[in-house]
Inverse folding.
């Protein structure tokens, strides 16, 4: 394993239409554990993940994965470097069954079904069910499972607890803790309780730029700083 | 009764050709978002490729037809793949330019066929037994109608099985729903695009060959006339849906045939079939604008 960061982003600029959403985002994600990408609504967190994968066009900047330049690679080639993606809106294939959604995600070998079914046993029972008929929580399980099926070194996970009932939030957090034992995770999360529980490092965006980087513990130890950077009180629950 | 049976089976034969054209068109749009106006040129090109081969070889009618069909399919698939690779691939995310280039290709390929073989229809060699008739419920049905219906049924079963049971089919079904998420799973969807264009080209060519059997000839305008109705079938069936296209093709073929006979006879009006199909399209767009089976390849 190289000593390079799992992910290194430098001077990333993205325009969506006329809007200059990312204005020179730079940060690094060291190998191991969870780095939380935080910020108020609309500051460019989701766009950052999508830009890393080439799902939105980058006008400037570089992306390095495990020390290798991935800036010019198409999305599928970036993913094949060992990057798993859990999108904000889950984006399960509604017309496909749960089993088909999972099978489609397996890139090499047989896929880590044992791990997936250990974390989400419900998916085994619902293999023949169309993903579009699942509840929001079950769809989130499928979305996370797709990323865990492959031996990905880096996982980009976008708001995995968004819209979930509290009990399911805990289930997802437990699954992500297990995933973090196997992969490096860059996590976009609005639920600060979950971010505090999982993250060792934080990167805070505001106005399309990185305004804070550091240890999660230090940030969450300062309610004033959390309020200043994220516009919320304390570290949630 | 015999007239009704004849119209029904003839309508199904026509629907079979519409289905073959519409299925490729539907998958291409559903997966790639490309409105392929060059699809009619694939039909004409495939039909002429098949006809040309029959002028170069001399065996039994059946042997010629089989060889010509295989050659037409290969030519259609090659043309489809070439068009995707050379013209469409550089224009993804530029839909206006895509429309312009496919319209340009349709015009130029049509003009090419016209320039080489002229405007006159070319007689398509058909085995004698296809000209014969089979009597069903008092109606004398030309045997070629059963060939067209049978081929379309085999293609339908084959396509549905392919989409359902193969990994390539799984990728297409997923891609029709959400192309960018397929790429985010590490799948090079561009290869699938080329494959789908080649498949669409082959199916269009097959429709061209069957139209040669149905009409007994091929002509430079064949693709354009079939394409118009295929677009209607795709809109009614729902973009990206093979099953929807099959149902819509049957309905359009039957409506056209019934109206051409009953309404035209009643009103003494020869355009009744085409106008009835347009009315059907308008009705579906008003009541169910997303089509019978929207945005799911199955």
């Amino acid at each position: 394993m190289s000593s390079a960061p799992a992910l290194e982003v430098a001077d990333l600029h993205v325009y969506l239409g006329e809007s200059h959403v990312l204005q020179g985002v730079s940060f690094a994600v060291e190998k191991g554990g969870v780095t939380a990408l935080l910020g108020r609504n609309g500051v460019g967190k989701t766009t950052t993940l999508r830009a890393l994968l080439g799902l939105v066009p980058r006008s400037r900047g570089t992306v390095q994965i495990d020390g290798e330049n991935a800036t010019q690679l198409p999305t599928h080639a970036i993913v094949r470097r060992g990057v798993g993606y859990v999108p904000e809106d889950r984006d399960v294939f509604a017309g496909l069954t749960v089993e088909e959604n999972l099978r489609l995600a397996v890139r090499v070998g047989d896929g880590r079904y044992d791990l997936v079914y250990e974390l989400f046993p419900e998916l085994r029972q619902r293999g023949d069910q169309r993903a579009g008929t699942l509840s929001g929580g079950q769809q989130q399980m499928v979305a996370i499972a797709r990323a865990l099926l492959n031996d990905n070194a880096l996982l980009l996970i976008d708001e995995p607890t968004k819209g979930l009932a509290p009990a399911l939030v805990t289930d997802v957090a437990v699954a992500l803790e297990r995933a973090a034992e196997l992969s490096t995770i860059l996590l976009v999360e609005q639920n600060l309780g979950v971010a505090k529980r999982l993250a060792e490092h934080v990167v805070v965006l505001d106005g399309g730029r990185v305004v804070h980087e550091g240890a999660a513990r230090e940030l969450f130890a300062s309610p004033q700083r959390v309020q200043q950077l994220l516009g919320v009180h304390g570290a949630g629950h | 009764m015999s007239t009704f049976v004849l119209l029904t089976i003839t309508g199904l034969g026509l629907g079979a050709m519409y289905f073959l054209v519409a299925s490729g068109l539907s998958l291409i749009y559903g997966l790639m978002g490309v409105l392929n106006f060059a699809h009619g040129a694939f039909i004409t090109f495939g039909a002429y490729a098949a006809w040309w081969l029959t002028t170069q070889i001399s065996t039994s009618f059946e042997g010629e037809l089989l060889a010509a069909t295989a050659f037409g399919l290969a030519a259609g698939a090659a043309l489809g793949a070439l068009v995707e690779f050379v013209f469409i691939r550089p224009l993804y995310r530029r839909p206006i330019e895509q429309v312009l280039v496919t319209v340009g290709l349709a015009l130029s390929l049509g003009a090419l066929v016209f320039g080489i073989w002229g405007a006159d229809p070319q007689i398509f060699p058909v085995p004698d037994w296809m000209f014969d008739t089979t009597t069903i419920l008092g109606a004398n049905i030309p045997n070629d109608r059963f060939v067209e219906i049978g081929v379309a049924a085999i293609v339908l079963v084959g396509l549905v099985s392919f989409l359902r049971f193969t990994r390539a089919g799984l990728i297409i079904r997923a891609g029709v729903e959400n192309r960018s998420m397929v790429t985010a799973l590490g799948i090079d969807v561009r290869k699938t695009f080329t494959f789908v264009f080649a498949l669409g080209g082959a199916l269009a060519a097959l429709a061209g060959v069957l139209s040669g059997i149905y009409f007994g000839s091929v002509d430079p305008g064949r693709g354009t006339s079939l394409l118009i109705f295929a677009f209607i079938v795709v809109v009614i069936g729902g973009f990206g849906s093979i099953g929807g296209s099959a149902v819509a093709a049957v309905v359009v073929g039957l409506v056209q045939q019934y109206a051409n006979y009953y309404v035209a006879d009643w009103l003494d009006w020869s355009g009744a079939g085409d106008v009835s199909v347009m009315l059907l399209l308008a009705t579906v767009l008003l009541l169910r604008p997303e089509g019978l089976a929207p945005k799911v390849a199955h």
Summary: Chain B has a mean pLDDT of 91. DSSP finds twelve helices and four strands in chain B. Residues 2-32 of chain B form the longest helix (31 residues).
